[in-house]
From TrEMBL:
Matches recorded under PROSITE patterns: PROTEIN_KINASE_ATP (PS00107), PROTEIN_KINASE_DOM (PS50011), PROTEIN_KINASE_ST (PS00108)
Reactions catalysed according to its record: L-seryl-[protein] + ATP = O-phospho-L-seryl-[protein] + ADP + H(+); L-threonyl-[protein] + ATP = O-phospho-L-threonyl-[protein] + ADP + H(+)
Protein name: non-specific serine/threonine protein kinase
The entry's keywords: ATP-binding, Glycoprotein, Kinase, Lectin, Membrane, Nucleotide-binding, Receptor, Serine/threonine-protein kinase, Signal, Transferase, Transmembrane, Transmembrane helix
Length: 687
């Protein structure tokens, strides 16, 4: 009886202390009662006083916060954070003995709940959009039981100090020091363990210590000790509590006791008074088995059978795909939708790699072979016969060259077409060139990539059985393999025609800035239109700029014209990519830029073939003198096109194209060797 009274007294202390404004806050819970904590998600307080943060349902969040706010700073003096300390006893029990997910975090947060936070690896603390953002003002100690390499987790049994994000500032494998010796602890063992979190407001140091419950005194050496001033992280008014989440494995996360203090040593927990951990699978209801259990089981069996049938039908439909007779001959090149679905984990956002021409690209790992692939999802337009389209894709897929990204096959389902490509670990070239990339690539690599792409394109144009026109050569379609070799990808737009035959007229496809003027005019894609795009690509790589981008409200910057004007002023190297920092072979860069101009010549007949391009690049033949060529300025074509549409033109959007041809102004032919300012003439004609 006396014990109960003392127990009640201890539990009521926080209320008194919290209401005394001048006193430093302190509270102790040796077990919890309902109402002690503010709970959300699946968190609950069990009948015997254990805080159970997560239950037996996967992908859940549980939050438990001390209901009152905590003042972490002295309003009247300065903005540094007070010292504080916390200790708690926890246990993690999983349905499996060696797997669990995802852990518990002790958290100091500006709000009592953490709205918008996600379960699983986000630990109920953050979501994809606010992870790592310093406006979060979240300080957390994570007890993490899953290794997530994206979050730089050191293992799947660690303690970490997290500030505003899921990537720990400091982390260590769970364990403790005793007499200079380190002892491991296993977070998911289901054993009770105690954690101490201390912040020294003067020293600006965070110490985290843990120990099994049997070690009554806090070990002298902390597990983690990290110097960091939390003044910018912790606001004056904050909330303290716990957050936990489960992923695909159901795990119960428990907290049995907790005490906290601002400025001073944390009150000891009365370990002997802590409630008992509930057994994992409770069988105490055996007596009720016949009255409640059996009917329940029977009805669940029926329900399961019905649900199972529904699921199977749903699954059938989900993975249904179209397979027609004519497709049988493509056999191995056709993938099962189910395999692609599994490979890309259901085309989930995390696997999303980017946008390719026509569709979204996802990373995947094929279920059987474990080969890494990139899967492009294309919405099929009914205009073009699917049969021809697939036939073309499959024949393009037979092409193999070390500078082409191999198309491994396709899959067709409803209105969707999926193209399966080799996965290129280093991504696309444009990410190293544009928008202030963190890493760029040096000139030697760029020159090798240029030569690689040239030889890939030469193969398509001249070495295959049929002439293959790529139709969308640009830096974002050049992918880099593990050795940074340039590989031309994205054959979604490629067209083939017999050697000597006239290429068919089709819809204009490609990307603005890489489209040859005659292609826009006639709609005919030829190897010369690929050469034009290759020229734009050369300038893009040499200058590190896109062929066209908006300079200000009224004007577009046209790379080709700028390079051209610098060249006619005798200073072509002025256009070199500043990211190269002047580290390049001037003669090579000059060759690339001049070749870029030559390939982008408005008259198709003047453009070199890819065979010649290769010879120039390999220095097997000298580049023709540019000054003797007549130039037709085509900048204003781009200007008008951009105004009307902007972005990529594709088969899927054929309607806009008639507008193009109508609005397309006639370019003037002039001999530029006598022209004073290219920019001036472009601008005056653009109006
Ligand atoms: C805040 O600072 C003032 C002035 O130094 C002091 O009188 C007061 O006790 C401090 N309050 C707390 C809660 O520490
Ligand atoms: C801010 O206050 C803390 C004590 O709360 C003190 O140790 C520290 O020196 C003060 N800093 C400044 C810049 O006044
Ligand atoms: C992420 O969390 C923030 C703040 O907690 C919330 O405002 C935002 O809506 C959330 N975003 C998503 C995508 O859930
Ligand atoms: C951080 O969050 C703020 C407010 O939600 C937002 O304005 C800002 O863009 C975010 N910063 C980053 C780097 O995401
Ligand atoms: C502790 O764990 C680490 C890695 O998990 C292991 O290498 C080491 O042998 C363990 N030590 C003991 C004493 O069990």
């Amino acid at each position: 009886m006396a014990a109960i009274l003392i127990f009640m007294l201890i539990l009521s202390i926080p209320i008194f202390l919290a209401s005394g404004a001048s006193e430093d806050l302190s509270f102790t819970f040796n077990g919890f009662r309902s109402g002690d904590l503010s709970l959300d998600g699946v968190a609950e307080i069990t009948s015997n006083g254990v805080l159970k943060l997560t239950n037996d349902v996967d992908q859940q969040i549980g939050h438990a916060f001390y209901p009152n706010s905590v003042s972490f700073k002295n309003q009247s003096t300065n903005s540094s954070v007070f010292s504080f300390s916390a200790t708690f006893v926890f246990a993690i029990k999983s349905e499996y003995h060696d797997l669990a997910g995802h852990g518990i975090a002790f958290v100091v947060s500006p709000s009592r709940g953490l709205p918008g936070a996600r379960p699983s690896e986000s630990l109920g603390l953050f979501n994809e959009s606010n992870n790592g953002n310093e406006t979060n003002h979240i300080f957390a100690i994570e007890l993490d039981t899953i290794q997530n390499l994206d979050l730089k987790d050191i293992n799947r049994n660690h303690v970490g100090i997290n500030i505003n994000g899921l990537v720990s500032e400091r982390a260590a494998p769970a364990g403790y020091w005793v007499d200079g010796e380190f002892k491991n602890l296993t977070l998911i063992s289901g054993e009770l363990m105690q954690v101490w979190v201390e912040y020294d407001g003067i020293d600006k140091r965070i110490d985290v210590t843990m120990a099994p419950i049997e070690i009554i005194h806090k070990p002298k050496t902390p597990l983690l000790s990290f110097r960091r001033d939390l003044s910018s992280v912790i606001n004056e008014i904050m909330f303290v509590g716990f957050s936990s989440s489960t992923g695909s494995i159901t795990t119960a996360h428990y907290v049995l006791g907790w005490s906290f203090k601002i400025n001073g040593e944390v009150p000891r927990l009365a370990l002997s008074q802590l409630p008992e951990l509930p057994p994992r699978s409770e069988k105490k209801q055996r007596s009720k088995f016949l009255t409640v259990g059996l009917p329940l089981i029977c009805s669940s069996i029926v329900l399961t059978a019905v649900l199972g049938a529904v699921f199977l039908i749903h699954r059938r439909r989900k993975f249904a795909e179209v397979l027609e007779d004519w497709e049988l001959e493509y056999g191995p090149q056709r993938f099962k939708y189910k395999d692609l679905y599994i490979a890309t984990k259901g085309f989930r956002e995390k696997e999303f790699l980017g946008f390719g021409g026509f569709g979204r690209v996802y990373k995947g790992v094929l279920p059987n072979s474990k080969i890494e692939v990139a899967v492009k999802k294309i919405s099929h337009e009914s205009r073009q016969g699917m049969k021809e389209f697939v036939a073309e894709i499959v024949s393009v897929g037979r092409l193999r060259h070390r500078n082409l990204v191999a198309l491994l096959g396709y899959c067709r389902r409803r209105e969707k077409l999926f193209l399966v490509y080799e996965y290129m670990p280093n991504g696309s070239l444009d990410t190293y060139l544009h928008d202030w990339p963190e890493v760029t690539i040096n000139w030697e690599q760029r020159f090798e990539i240029i030569k690689g792409v040239a030889s890939g394109l030469f193969y398509l144009h001249e070495q295959c059985e049929q002439v293959v026109i790529h139709r969308d050569v640009k830096a974002s379609n050049v992918l880099l393999d593990a050795e940074f070799n340039g590989r031309l990808g994205d054959f979604g737009l490629a067209k083939m025609h017999d050697r000597g035959a006239d290429p068919r007229t089709t819809h204009v496809v490609g990307t603005l800035g890489y489209l040859a003027p005659e292609h826009i005019r006639t709609g005919r894609a030829t190897s010369r239109t690929d050469v034009y795009a290759f020229g734009a690509f050369l300038l893009e790589v040499g200058c590190g700029r896109r062929p066209i981008h908006q300079q200000d409200e009224a004007d577009d910057f046209i790379l080709m014209d700028w390079v051209f004007s610098c060249w006619s002023n005798g200073d072509i190297l002025r256009t070199a990519d500043p990211k190269l920092g002047g580290n390049f072979d001037p003669s090579q860069l000059e060759l690339v830029l001049k070749l870029g101009l030559l390939c982008s010549h408005s008259s198709p007949a003047v453009r070199p073939t890819m065979r010649q391009v290769l010879q120039y690049l390999e220095a097997d033949a000298p580049l023709p003198e540019l000054a003797t060529l007549r130039w037709r300025l085509s900048g204003n074509v781009f200007l008008n096109l951009r105004r009307r549409n902007g972005g990529s033109i594709g088969d899927g959007d054929g309607d806009g194209l008639d507008d193009f041809s109508m609005s397309y102004p006639v370019s003037t032919e002039r001999n530029v060797t006598s022209s004073s300012s290219v920019a001036e003439s472009v601008l005056s004609e653009g109006r």
